[in-house]
Amino acid sequence: MYGRKVKLRFFFIILFLFSLILSVFLILKSLEENVVYFQSPSDIQLLEEIKYKKIRVGGMVKENSIEVSSEKINFIVTDFKNEISVVYSGVVPNLFAEGKGVVAEGYLKDRSFFEATKILAKHDENYMPPEVNEALKEK
Protein backbone atom coordinates (compact mmCIF):
# COMPACT_ATOMS: atom_id res chain seq x y z
CA MET A 1 0.00 0.00 0.00
CA TYR A 2 2.64 2.55 1.07
CA GLY A 3 6.00 2.63 -0.62
CA ARG A 4 9.28 1.79 1.08
CA LYS A 5 10.27 5.47 1.20
CA VAL A 6 7.06 6.48 3.04
CA LYS A 7 7.41 3.63 5.57
CA LEU A 8 11.04 4.55 6.26
CA ARG A 9 10.13 8.24 6.73
CA PHE A 10 7.28 7.28 9.08
CA PHE A 11 9.65 5.03 11.08
CA PHE A 12 12.19 7.87 11.53
CA ILE A 13 9.46 10.33 12.59
CA ILE A 14 8.21 7.87 15.22
CA LEU A 15 11.78 7.18 16.38
CA PHE A 16 12.48 10.94 16.63
CA LEU A 17 9.30 11.61 18.64
CA PHE A 18 10.04 8.71 20.99
CA SER A 19 13.60 9.96 21.53
CA LEU A 20 12.32 13.48 22.18
CA ILE A 21 9.75 12.32 24.74
CA LEU A 22 12.30 10.10 26.47
CA SER A 23 14.85 12.95 26.62
CA VAL A 24 12.34 15.41 28.09
CA PHE A 25 11.25 12.80 30.66
CA LEU A 26 14.82 12.09 31.75
CA ILE A 27 15.68 15.79 32.01
CA LEU A 28 12.61 16.54 34.11
CA LYS A 29 13.22 13.52 36.32
CA SER A 30 16.83 14.58 37.03
CA LEU A 31 15.74 18.17 37.75
CA GLU A 32 13.08 16.93 40.15
CA GLU A 33 15.76 15.60 42.48
CA ASN A 34 17.70 18.89 42.44
CA VAL A 35 14.80 21.30 42.83
CA VAL A 36 14.62 23.04 46.19
CA TYR A 37 11.22 24.47 47.04
CA PHE A 38 10.74 27.84 48.74
CA GLN A 39 8.29 27.95 51.64
CA SER A 40 7.24 30.57 54.14
CA PRO A 41 6.79 29.82 57.85
CA SER A 42 3.00 29.80 57.29
CA ASP A 43 3.41 27.19 54.54
CA ILE A 44 5.45 25.04 56.92
CA GLN A 45 2.74 25.22 59.60
CA LEU A 46 0.27 23.82 57.05
CA LEU A 47 2.43 20.80 56.11
CA GLU A 48 0.73 17.47 56.71
CA GLU A 49 3.96 15.63 57.41
CA ILE A 50 7.60 16.60 57.86
CA LYS A 51 9.84 15.01 55.23
CA TYR A 52 13.59 15.00 55.55
CA LYS A 53 14.38 16.71 52.27
CA LYS A 54 16.12 19.95 51.45
CA ILE A 55 13.85 22.98 51.36
CA ARG A 56 14.20 26.74 51.50
CA VAL A 57 12.49 28.85 54.13
CA GLY A 58 12.06 32.51 53.38
CA GLY A 59 10.82 35.56 55.16
CA MET A 60 12.08 38.41 57.29
CA VAL A 61 14.59 38.13 60.12
CA LYS A 62 12.65 39.04 63.26
CA GLU A 63 13.85 42.11 65.17
CA ASN A 64 16.02 41.29 68.22
CA SER A 65 16.12 37.58 67.36
CA ILE A 66 19.73 37.11 66.21
CA GLU A 67 21.87 35.29 68.78
CA VAL A 68 25.49 34.71 67.84
CA SER A 69 27.58 32.12 69.67
CA SER A 70 31.09 30.93 68.87
CA GLU A 71 29.86 28.16 66.56
CA LYS A 72 26.27 28.92 65.60
CA ILE A 73 23.89 31.69 64.72
CA ASN A 74 20.29 31.40 65.90
CA PHE A 75 17.57 33.64 64.53
CA ILE A 76 13.86 33.66 63.79
CA VAL A 77 12.36 33.90 60.31
CA THR A 78 8.87 35.37 60.19
CA ASP A 79 6.27 36.14 57.57
CA PHE A 80 4.41 38.29 60.12
CA LYS A 81 1.87 35.49 60.68
CA ASN A 82 4.06 32.59 61.79
CA GLU A 83 7.65 32.15 62.87
CA ILE A 84 10.32 29.47 62.64
CA SER A 85 13.59 29.24 64.56
CA VAL A 86 16.67 28.76 62.41
CA VAL A 87 20.12 27.59 63.46
CA TYR A 88 23.10 28.01 61.13
CA SER A 89 26.82 27.25 61.38
CA GLY A 90 28.99 29.27 59.06
CA VAL A 91 29.55 32.72 57.68
CA VAL A 92 26.47 34.80 56.92
CA PRO A 93 26.26 37.22 53.98
CA ASN A 94 26.91 40.93 54.52
CA LEU A 95 23.26 41.78 53.86
CA PHE A 96 22.07 39.51 56.68
CA ALA A 97 20.50 41.70 59.38
CA GLU A 98 17.41 42.03 61.55
CA GLY A 99 14.38 43.29 59.69
CA LYS A 100 15.81 42.23 56.32
CA GLY A 101 14.71 39.47 53.97
CA VAL A 102 16.45 36.12 54.13
CA VAL A 103 16.22 32.69 52.53
CA ALA A 104 17.65 29.77 54.48
CA GLU A 105 18.31 26.47 52.72
CA GLY A 106 18.49 23.30 54.77
CA TYR A 107 16.43 20.68 56.55
CA LEU A 108 13.26 21.00 58.59
CA LYS A 109 13.46 19.28 61.97
CA ASP A 110 9.88 20.07 63.02
CA ARG A 111 7.29 22.78 62.31
CA SER A 112 9.12 25.33 64.44
CA PHE A 113 12.80 24.43 64.02
CA PHE A 114 14.95 24.58 60.89
CA GLU A 115 18.63 23.66 60.49
CA ALA A 116 20.15 25.74 57.71
CA THR A 117 23.07 24.69 55.54
CA LYS A 118 23.13 27.91 53.52
CA ILE A 119 21.93 31.47 54.13
CA LEU A 120 20.96 33.72 51.24
CA ALA A 121 20.28 37.35 52.13
CA LYS A 122 17.71 39.16 50.03
CA HIS A 123 17.63 42.82 49.14
CA ASP A 124 15.14 45.05 47.40
CA GLU A 125 15.49 46.60 43.97
CA ASN A 126 16.87 49.81 45.51
CA TYR A 127 19.90 48.10 47.04
CA MET A 128 23.27 49.66 46.36
CA PRO A 129 26.57 48.32 47.74
CA PRO A 130 27.95 50.58 50.53
CA GLU A 131 31.10 51.38 48.53
CA VAL A 132 29.10 52.65 45.57
CA ASN A 133 26.76 54.58 47.86
CA GLU A 134 29.72 56.34 49.56
CA ALA A 135 31.31 57.16 46.21
CA LEU A 136 28.07 58.76 45.03
CA LYS A 137 27.78 60.82 48.23
CA GLU A 138 31.30 62.16 47.74
CA LYS A 139 30.41 63.45 44.26
List the helices and strands and how they pair.
Layout (H helix, E strand, L loop, with lengths): L3 H31 L2 E3 L1 H5 L8 E8 L5 E2 L4 E6 L4 E6 L12 E10 L2 E9 L8 H9 L1
Parallel strand pairs: 1-2, 5-7
Antiparallel strand pairs: 2-4, 2-6, 3-4, 4-5, 6-7
Any overview of this molecule?
The chain is α+β, with helices and mostly antiparallel strands and 139 residues long. The chain folds into 2 domains: 1-34; 37-121, OB fold (Dihydrolipoamide Acetyltransferase, E2P) (Beta Barrel). Helices cover 32% and strands 32% of the residues. The chain has helices at 4-34, 41-45, 130-138, and strands at 37-39, 54-61, 67-68, 73-78, 83-88, 101-110, 113-121. Strands 2-4-5-7-6 form a 5-stranded mixed β-barrel. α2 (41-45) links the parallel β1 and β2. The mean pLDDT is 85.
Index terms:
single chain; 139 residues; alpha+beta; OB fold (Dihydrolipoamide Acetyltransferase, E2P); 2 domains; five-stranded mixed beta barrel; 3 helices; 7 strands; elongated
Structural class: alpha+beta
pLDDT average, as an integer?
85
Q: Can you tell me the CATH superfamily of the largest domain?
A: Nucleic acid-binding proteins
Strand portion, in percent? 25-35%
Using the CA coordinates, give the radius of gyration: 24 Å
The total count of helices amounts to: 3
Q: Please give the domain count.
A: 2
What's the story with the biggest beta sheet? 5 strands, mixed, barrel
Helix content range: 25-40%
**Based on the structure given, which CATH architecture of the largest domain is correct?**
Beta Barrel
| General shape | elongated
Order of helices and strands: HEHEEEEEEH
CATH fold description of the largest domain: OB fold (Dihydrolipoamide Acetyltransferase, E2P)
Distance between the termini: 83 Å
Q: Which segments are poorly predicted (pLDDT under 50) over 5 or more consecutive residues?
A: none
